[in-house]
Amino acid sequence: MAKKEEKVEEKPRETTVEFLASLAAVLVTGLFIITFALQAFEIPSSSMENTLLIGDHVFVNRVIFAPPTHWMGPLLPYREIHHQDIVVFLSPAEPGLYVVKRIIGIPGDRIHLRDGAVYRNGEKLDEPYVIHQAQDGYPDRDNYRDNFPAAPPSEFTGVTEAWARELPQHIEGSDLVVPPNSYFAMGDNRDVSYDSRFWGFIPRPNVIGRPMFIYWSFETPPNQYKQTEIGQRIGFLLHVIIHFFDETRWNRTLRMVR
What we know:
Blueprint: H1 16-37, E1 38-42, E2 56-61, E3 86-90, E4 98-105, E5 110-114, E6 117-120, E7 123-124, H2 139-146, H3 161-166, E8 171-172, E9 175-177, E10 182-186, H4 196-199, E11 202-203, E12 207-217, H5 230-242, H6 244-247
Antiparallel strand pairs: 1-2, 2-12, 3-4, 3-12, 4-10, 5-6, 5-9, 6-7, 8-9, 10-11
């Protein structure tokens, strides 16, 4: 007598409504992460070389420096901004421009430079990440840059008018004192960095977050971010498509930012 064939239960197929609900959940989760947790950011200038290069694309952690909330605080890794943190922030000098620098001074710190070396609270900093690429021909700017704030700003130093007026209010003796809810930041490419020496403090609300890692790096010309015309952007996009494999810096992919 033939054995009765066992019936195999078929898994119910996902209905259209269930599929759309799953897709919506994924999209909402992704939108939440992009909006509140992570932000993609492209390095626009050479001011953070060699830590970050022009054309490095990084993911920024938007949560870490956010104001803690009562209901999510224990679940999220909030912390204060520390010395040497690399941060992305909205430029105080150019509204709408995202900038990346390294935090040198936090509220209460006393900062000054002597011959290019940074002193914080009387101690000379050990900064192995810093490089120097001095540009000759601008003695006033170079002296102000390397001996801040002892050397007064002039029309040739590139200091913003607002900072030139505010700067004396924060000088005590030979030091610049960082006020509450503000930060003093500088680029690692110290001689070419347009930073707090030239436009002042970063207000706490301007801080967006901390770069975590480089997800893609492409050889990009200096000041490419200033090419805003449609034709220029399309031209560079075509260049990226054509040279994606030979001009991508593969050795920088997934490199952590420190």
